[in-house]
Amino acid sequence: MPLKLKDIAKALGLSVTTISKVINNYPDISQTTKKKVLEYVKQNKYKPNLQASFLRTNESKLVGIILPSLNHYFFNSVLEGLVDNAMKNNYMVIVLQSNEKYKKEKKLVEQLLNLNVDGIFITVSQETRNFDHLFEIQKNNKTLILFDKIEKSINCSKVIINDKQAAFIATEHLIKRGCKKILHFRGGLLPQISIDRFLGYRSALEHYKIPYDPKRVFICENGNDDEGYLNAKKVIEEGIEFDGLFAISDLIALGAIRYFNKKNISIPDQVAVVGFSNWKVSKLTTPTLTTINQPGKLMGEKMFDLFLKGFKANKNKEKINFETIIIPSNLIVRNSS
Amino acid sequence: MPLKLKDIAKALGLSVTTISKVINNYPDISQTTKKKVLEYVKQNKYKPNLQASFLRTNESKLVGIILPSLNHYFFNSVLEGLVDNAMKNNYMVIVLQSNEKYKKEKKLVEQLLNLNVDGIFITVSQETRNFDHLFEIQKNNKTLILFDKIEKSINCSKVIINDKQAAFIATEHLIKRGCKKILHFRGGLLPQISIDRFLGYRSALEHYKIPYDPKRVFICENGNDDEGYLNAKKVIEEGIEFDGLFAISDLIALGAIRYFNKKNISIPDQVAVVGFSNWKVSKLTTPTLTTINQPGKLMGEKMFDLFLKGFKANKNKEKINFETIIIPSNLIVRNSS
């Protein structure tokens, strides 16, 4: 059993209060007593009970992150950056997954608040339309950081990728390569990132005076590679003309490429393809995939920086200046375009 | 500020002890008082302070997992399974990464113990030779579960993949496809998984009476795809004959394939390739990759089951029967072989 304050008190013939005062560095203790206690503590490898100390300071040095999925390259990079930065600052990170479910997200927030974490990082689930549970975090005086899929109406610090601009760059690249009939395999109709990437695609077409044709836009609801494959099949079967494809994710782009390869449609000659995310896999495929690099690790690091700022301001009862950091993404050109 | 016991006591004109007794369901309280307190608690959304409750019960409902890296498909699957199962049981998981460093691993164990977690899951780092910090977990009466890279001398429950057998199956598959000059791109000399996979390779050769040639074994220390690429280059430059390759990981196999593709060496006709891990990517590459499937998610789930068993036995002061669960892996045959 670990050594407790009362054990030390008994061993040294002192009161628990005295031992506690020494350990917590109170001034009203004689140097002799202080030395005696500290030596005993050191020799006997006393470890302060952190939970007891949390009760005193109301700081748990714990933060929680709620991710939609734990098996997703981009979110894993975010997690890596967050955990790295948290560890440097002696914080620990509790990881939870919402599986894109609103009810689960709400319950997890409650659990994290019950645990008295100092801060919560959330990318809101695809189902979430009610944000009371997020306001609750702030009512509980905890630091909330939103990232990736954010909710604009909530007044807190945020870290996002400029999806619209990134999608513009991806589409512009295809246009500059000579493509005029560019397909877009988009995500669902509701998630902001899916909307923004679609808007970036449209605005690049507009900018370069290429007519927008809704027949060239296909919805991929689940985001798996089979959807890319099946939509590519649909394009061919419906006889839609195309010379380029901008896909909302690398996985969907690779699914489409799988079908094009099968049908001996030459990439990039007959169709140039651009993905999104720069998954590790995208430089290993044949052809290697042109894609948008989203620096997830950097995002995770910045998220923790914003938490620390907010937490300190909150603790010192200073006014908090909420910030939104936009992480720049860049195009990586490979053989598919 | 959250409601405290003393606030409730004040509001109802009762003592803190009475309120505490009601909340903790002590018997010696009148039904009238009980009802009064519980109604007030419900109306005012009182949340028990979990840290205070941890101090009482010595259960934190927190567990910690130390992974070498957070950006690694297999470990992310393990994490997913663990977090899923933990959440079902109302536990939360703290995630830490050792970056394969012994000192870091040791420090993280100390931090988790200070936090009073109920259990710790570790896959030991490549550098770790001294295991005192792991024994320390058990001395502190916490449940230790080792997985993947384990240390045999420690008496605790373990979850592992039978790497030797899986490597045997992978090599056997190449032999049955007619390969006689099989390269092995192995990992470093020390990690047990690297040794076991190498032993599986050798024992398959022996079993099928194919002479072992150390010239055909190449060490990939870091495990990235460039090592696969560079070693494939070395094989060609050194004029070593080959017709098969068993690589210790999909990433290394894909690096080698990248070089073979570049040199127009036909897969699987001139060289059949088998990887290890069944990364998501391995079914998206050209050619798709034959590989060993390691069910990481199942591993994570089983790890939590073993923790719960150990923790309960420990709590009830029952004898603990340590178990080692071996997760079966299987060969997935695709176009590279």
Task: Note the main attributes of this structure.
homodimer, 337 residues, alpha/beta, 434 Repressor (Amino-terminal Domain), Rossmann fold, 3 domains, four-stranded parallel beta sheet, 12 helices, elongated
Task: Describe this structure in a few short sentences.
2 copies of one chain form a homodimer. Chain A has helices spanning 5-12, 16-23, 31-43, 50-57, 73-88, 102-114, 132-139, 163-176, 192-207, 225-237, 250-262, 296-315; strands at residues 62-67, 92-97, 119-122, 143-147, 157-161, 182-186, 217-219, 244-247, 272-274, 291-293, 324-327, 330-332.
Write up this protein:
The structure is a homodimer of 337-residue chains. In chain A, the strands form three sheets. A six-stranded parallel β-sheet of chain A has the order 2-1-3-4-5-11, with helices on both faces. In chain A, strands 7-6-8-9 form a four-stranded parallel β-sheet. Chain A is of the alpha/beta class and 337 residues long. The first copy, chain A, has three domains: 5-48, 434 Repressor (Amino-terminal Domain); 60-161 and 296-327, Rossmann fold, CATH 3.40.50; 163-293, Rossmann fold (3-Layer(aba) Sandwich), CATH 3.40.50.2300. Chain A is elongated and about 90 Å long. Chain A contains twelve helices and twelve strands. Chains A and B meet through helix 4, helix 5, strand 2, helix 6 and helix 11 of A and helix 4, helix 5, strand 2, helix 6 and helix 11 of B. Strand 2 (92-97) of chain A pairs antiparallel with strand 2 (92-97) of chain B.
